[in-house]
Specification:
The complex is a heterotrimer of chains A (274), B (334) and C (374). By secondary structure, chain B is mainly α. Chain B has 14 helices and no strands. The chains are: A alpha/beta (274), B mainly alpha (334), C alpha/beta (374). Chain B: One of its GO terms (cellular component) is plasma membrane.
Chain lengths: 274, 334, 374
């Protein structure tokens, strides 16, 4: 499954007659994603990262351009065709009703279950399998409101997996989590992508996470051209300064036979003599 | 094990309480006699009881018991469905203005035609009209965002409440006004088989619609985009839920007046027992709601010679009960 | 800031003005002494009211049956320039319009939706306005507007059904100065009561012998409301040797269910004129879900619609002494053998100077369902 966004752009407010239309992105979004690839979307707050994901999936309508799945425009596909291909993991938020983790994950099977039908034993088995694949099978009967934020995020990923998608879309899955939980989430995502050959798009605030996830980066910011390309090409000190208005040092460090690529804000630096 | 027991209880309790309720009332009928009377409808038994006893059991109590259970179960499942759909546990079935609309219909019905079949039809029609009005304000053509629907419901309720007040103001204080006031507080005092025939099927249809959608309601309770991304046609689903709940509420109001509290608290009690999954909450609500309103109505018809309006009892008994549960669980249902 | 100050000053001066008005009013009323043209009476709110001796225009509001009291006390409706629309409806459907057609000249436009429109009332300019005592606010408002208002109370703690009528008759006598007629009617009522008491005592009627009676106040497909204690029905029954089945359990008017009625199983049912239901409706069992055929009164065809003479007989109207006799006869047909047709003809002839035809008597005893609508 190849996901392609062609000339995509969006605006919140239609310009008044006679005025030129102002778009959200400085220039149109264009990228292509193949199975097994991860695209990290980076940008400061308010740059329109979440909007980009929503437009791409058809939850919002592109004002210009289109999304193509294997060359077919999204708008020509049925709801079922779209959502069996794309799995969307929203940001974990507080839930009104405390479903159990298993119940939450089973909801991911909705697209395969008739409107008036109830989930079958098979749906429940698949949900348990999905929970197993993200490593929280033991939490199946816990309440969503009782598990940690990281565990809830993993459950949401599992909920997406039970629909057996080919493209995984995640909206800042690791924000608000502590470092250990970030590790679990990121490792799980990367593992799933490689194991199942998924294409994955992920919004993130963390430049370092883009290095870890690898493959491609899409960088957006207000009044800046949209940058798309390989991580090593896009993630430069100059770009980060331009897009995030923060000075960073890109470091490469080898130790114990491992290579670490990372970015550190310069204000972290200190003079050891002082 | 425990859940199996709960399941059995939820299925059998309404039947047991229903059967026992036949023995409750101002007119004394021996328990054995009432069992005989009931059985005599199916198998031939020599009549050893008076005609009056049979009338009390078969024509006064039985239709009323069935209606109380239907309405109690119906309002509760409608409340549970709306709470799920609006993703808000404080919602009751009249959130979109159905009750106020049907209440207004009933008031003008009583004003012009007395308490009659015509009144019921007007009540039912006005309930539907109120929902239509809510849609008109809330924007049918768009996706019906939940907050718009709620606000439109508030406006509609306020409008129809004002119209009810207007009717009361115009009504003859000697006869019509007490009738309207009493009726608006809810009663099954004159429930009959014909009420069962006119409103019963609509309530049953409404219950069935919500019942088959029960699992889908879980998804509807998520955020709108989340639900869409799970491949659910949210707008269509909302329409069906609203249709089901409206059929139930408008029919209930048209025969029994406005009965508050049931649709609000029963789903909470159901969630405390079976958890939050609407697949189980909705059936449990039917069962608990049926038993609850039946008990309330038993009190209403037997506590004093005068019929006690249902809304008074549902609130007086429901509110403290709810408060105790709240304190005990700390609102632990979510 | 300056605006706030202005508002404060404004409202303060309005307050002062109001206080000033209040003061001057009380002073004025203290200064007033009855003159040759006026006299003082005490109304049923214990207010002293100064009224003209010579009355030729009066109006009455929420005190619905009072026009009939006025008529029997004065034998005239000429003075009545305004009545409540409900009273007007009742009058125009009753025999009163034939006996004293001038009642139909009364205006009703000063009452809108049950509320007094003071300006319309001032336009009508009655010398005295009669209002129900429970509407104290209205009475106060009218007094402030300079309309002489007499309050009449419909509530009574007395067990005597004629108490209200007697009080109103006495007060009306004081107001008009004609006291012999009211006194005569009161005497007739008391005589009727004594006759009933004596007959019952003579026949040795004990509690067990008394018929058990129910008063059906409002009735329809969807409502069965009975009148119990503290209602007119209860007083009529107490005075005519009936046992009110609802007295112990129902205070005022309350909705009940069929089961409760089976439980009471009354010997006799009286239906008021506030509801459209007729005895035949119960005999024919026309109400969905209500099986009246099981009830003793229905089985024995002892369901009676209360008569409607110059007003509904259920509340104490000018015909109240007749109501006593009528109900006593229905309760004990074998004890009270007088001819009600003659009784009513005599009474109308004596007090209203009107000869009733047989058809008219028939109509009074069998009021139509339509009568409930006014």
């Amino acid at each position: 499954m190849i996901l392609k966004v062609k000339d995509g752009n969006y605006f919140y407010k239609k310009a008044k007659k006679g005025n030129p239309q102002k778009y959200l992105y400085n220039d149109a979004i264009n990228f292509e994603l193949h199975p097994g690839e991860i695209l990290s979307v980076l940008g400061p707050n308010g740059a329109g990262k979440t909007t980009l994901l929503k437009c791409m999936m058809g939850l919002l309508k592109w004002e210009q351009g289109s999304t193509l799945l294997d060359g077919k425009p999204l708008t020509s596909l049925s709801t079922k065709e779209i959502w069996t291909k794309i799995g969307y993991v929203p940001q974990a938020s507080r839930m009104t009703f405390s479903y159990t983790v298993l119940e939450l994950v089973t909801m991911g099977r909705a697209i395969y279950i008739q409107t008036f039908a109830q989930p079958s034993e098979k749906d429940r088995m698949l949900a348990l399998e999905a929970l197993d694949s993200v490593g929280i099978k033991h939490l199946a009967n816990e309440l969503c409101t009782a598990v940690s934020g990281g565990e809830l995020q993993l459950a949401l990923i599992a909920r997406t997996l039970v629909a057996e998608p080919e493209i995984l879309v995640l909206d800042e899955p690791e924000s608000h989590l502590d470092m250990k939980k970030q590790q679990v989430i990121l490792q799980t995502i990367k593992r799933l992508v490689k194991e199942k050959g998924l294409a994955c798009i992920i919004n993130t605030h963390y430049a370092n996470h883009a290095f870890y996830l690898g493959d491609k980066v899409l960088m957006v910011a207000k009044d800046q051209p949209v940058l798309t390309g390989k991580v090593s090409e896009i993630m430069t000190e100059e770009n980060v300064f331009k897009y995030f208005q923060i000075e960073v040092k890109r470091l490469r460090h080898e130790t114990d036979g491992q290579v670490f690529e990372t970015m550190v804000p310069t204000y972290f630096g200190s003079n050891p003599d002082q | 094990m425990k859940s199996k027991l709960i399941k059995i209880l939820l299925w059998t309790l309404p039947l047991i309480v229903g059967l026992l309720s036949i023995g409750v009332g101002r007119f004394e009928v021996d328990f054995i006699v009432q069992i005989k009377i009931l059985l005599s409808q199916i198998i031939p038994i020599e009549q050893t009881w008076t005609q009056m006893e049979e009338t009390v059991v078969m024509n006064v109590r039985l239709p009323r018991i069935i209606l109380a259970m239907l309405i109690g179960g119906g309002l509760s499942i409608a409340g549970a469905a709306f709470q799920g759909m609006f993703s808000n546990p404080l919602v009751s079935p009249d959130i979109l203005g159905v009750s106020a609309g049907a209440g207004f219909g009933a008031s003008i019905g009583i004003l012009f035609f007395g308490n009659s079949f015509t009144m019921q039809i007007i009540a039912l029609g006005m309930g539907m009209l109120a929902i239509g009005f809510t849609f008109l304000i809330g924007g049918v053509k768009r996706d019906m965002p939940i907050f718009m629907l709620v606000l439109a419901g508030v406006v509609t309720s306020a409008l129809f409440q004002a119209l009810i007040s207007l009717v009361k103001f115009l009504a003859d204080p000697e006869e019509k006004l007490p009738s309207i006031t009493y009726w608006l507080m809810g009663s099954l005092g004159t429930a009959s088989y014909s009420d069962l025939l006119t409103a019963g099927p609509l309530i049953v249809i409404g219950i069935l619609i919500l019942y088959v959608l029960r699992w889908r309601l879980n998804i509807l309770s998520l955020s709108e985009e989340e639900a869409k991304s799970l491949g659910v046609s949210v707008t269509k689903l909302k329409w069906m839920v609203i249709l089901g709940a409206t059929l139930i509420t408008a029919s209930a109001v048209s025969i029994a007046g406005i009965i508050g509290w049931v649709g609000l608290i029963i789903p909470h009690i159901a969630r405390m027992i079976v958890g939050s999954n609407n697949q189980y909450v909705l059936p449990a609500s039917i069962s608990i709601g049926a038993v609850y309103l039946l008990i309330i109505d038993n009190l209403s018809r037997s506590l004093t010679a005068a019929e006690i309006p249902l809304s008074i009892l549902t609130a007086i008994i429901g509110a403290p009960f709810f408060a105790i549960l709240l304190r005990k669980t700390g609102g632990g249902w979510g | 800031m300056r605006n706030t100050y202005k508002y404060l000053l404004g409202s303060a001066s309005i307050m002062l003005l109001l206080v000033g008005c209040g003061d001057s009013n009380t002073e004025v009323s203290k200064d007033l002494k009855p003159t040759a043209e006026t006299k003082m009476i005490v109304d049923e709110l214990d207010r002293e009211v100064e009224i003209p001796t010579e009355l030729n225009s009066i109006a009455m509001g929420g005190i619905l049956p009072y026009f009939s009291t006025w008529f029997i006390a004065t034998n005239s409706t000429e003075e009545i320039v305004g009545i409540h629309p409900n009273s007007y409806n009742a009058a125009s459907h009753s025999i009163l319009k034939d006996i004293s057609p001038s009642i139909l000249d009364a205006k009703t436009n000063f009452i809108e939706n049950g509320e007094v429109n003071i300006e319309e009332l001032i336009t009508l300019n009655p010398q005295v306005y009669f209002e129900i005592a429970s509407q104290e606010k209205t009475v106060e408002k009218l007094e402030e507007a300079g309309i002489t208002t007499v309050a009449l109370d419909t509530n009574t703690t007395s067990l005597n059904p004629l108490d209200t009528l007697n009080r109103w008759l006495t007060l009306t006598g004081e107001i008009t100065g004609v006291t012999d007629r009211p006194a005569e009617i009161i005497t007739v009522g008391e005589a009727n009561q004594k006759m009933i008491d004596d007959t019952l005592a003579e026949a040795d009627i004990t509690e067990e012998d008394k018929p058990r009676v129910m008063v059906l106040q409002y009735h329809s497909d969807g409502e069965i409301s009975v009148a119990g204690s503290n209602m007119h029905g209860n007083r009529w029954l107490n005075s005519t040797g009936g046992i009110d089945v609802a007295a112990d359990e129902v205070d005022g008017i309350k909705a009940v269910n069929m089961e409760q009625i089976y439980n009471w199983n009354p010997d006799i049912i009286y239906i008021t004129n506030f509801t459209e239901t007729q005895p035949e409706d119960l005999y024919n069992n026309v109400f969905e879900g209500q099986d009246w055929s099981q009830v003793k009164a229905v089985q024995e065809k002892k369901v009676y619609k209360m008569p409607l003479g110059i007003y509904r007989w259920y509340p104490p109207s000018g015909d109240a002494p007749l109501m006593l006799k009528w109900m006593a006869q229905k309760n004990y047909p074998e004890l009270f053998t007088y001819d009600m047709n003659e009784e009513i003809k005599d009474y109308y002839n004596r007090f209203y100077s009107y000869d009733l035809s047989d058809e008219q008597v028939e109509e009074i005893f069998n009021p139509s369902s339509e009568a409930a609508k006014y």
